[in-house]
Amino acid sequence: MTILRTGQGDELVLFHGWGMNAGIFDSWVEQLQHHFRCHVVNLPGFGGRPACSNPDLDEWLDALMPELPERAYWLGWSLGGLLVQRLAQRQPERVKAQLLVATSPHFPAAENWRGIQPSVLQQFTEQLHLNADKTIERFLAIQAMGSETAKQDIRQIKQRLEQHPQADSEALQQGLTLLQQVDFRTIKSPTPQYWLLGRLDSLVPVALAEQLGEAATVLAKASHAPFISHPAEATDWLLRATAG
To answer: Residue limits of the AB hydrolase-1 domain (predicted)?
Structure first.
């Protein structure tokens, strides 16, 4: 199943992050389905969905959009946040609001910009060719780093991922390319953006919140997967963001 649909209420579409699949949201959606009609999506090449030919956000969106609501709240976690930002640029009429969780307009660190060191992303690219499983395992460890419940978080993530088919190797490579290359820093958002960041996140530095201003909410004890480590707080944030 490439899209799980459940619940009643306003339409809410959820895009997962790199190396993951729709199963990552299972426990959170158990809460969200009481408030929203949730569409939980496997991105191209993940969770059994066919991969796209190129590392291109528009091509990925073209593969997904015919199956998704004409108008909705769009939530993107990590890599998924890049797709949500691009969708809002392309088709703002479909986007009630962008709900951006532990993501960024530009993932690599640059001059006057905090982010992932480019050398780290390059290492992931090189290691992916050697051993995809170990590369994803390392990525999981980095995601939970700093969280008080890191071991528990990683265990839960693994359990969720195993419920869906493994990611396509080409899609994994494409996803890393997108994380390395996409840059939306100079693009003014055409629709409302609400950001949820973890203060302990080692992939999306909390310093981003200073540039986002009032649009950002920071969870003090969360890392890169706040909806897993702090699901109640993440739900409260989402409900506030969509209350208007």
So the answer is: 12-231
What pLDDT is recorded for position 209? 92
**H or E element: which one contains 195?**
strand 193-198
What pLDDT does residue 244 have? 66
- Beta-strand runs (E) in the chain: 3-6, 10-15, 36-41, 72-77, 95-101, 193-198, 216-219
CATH code of the region 3-241: 3.40.50.1820
List the catalytic residue out of 78, 147, 223, 229. Answer: 78
Q: Return the domain boundaries, the chain.
A: 3-241
Distance CA 5, CA 178 (A): 27
SS3 at position 226:
helix
Mean pLDDT across 115-139 = 86
**173-205 per-position pLDDT tens digit:** 999 999 999 999 999 999 999 999 999 998 999
Q: Can you tell me the distance from the alpha carbon of 244 to that of 242, in angstroms, rounded to the nearest whole number?
A: 6
Binding residues for substrate are 18, 78-79, 139-143, 224
Residues belonging to the binding site are 18, 78-79, 139-143, 224
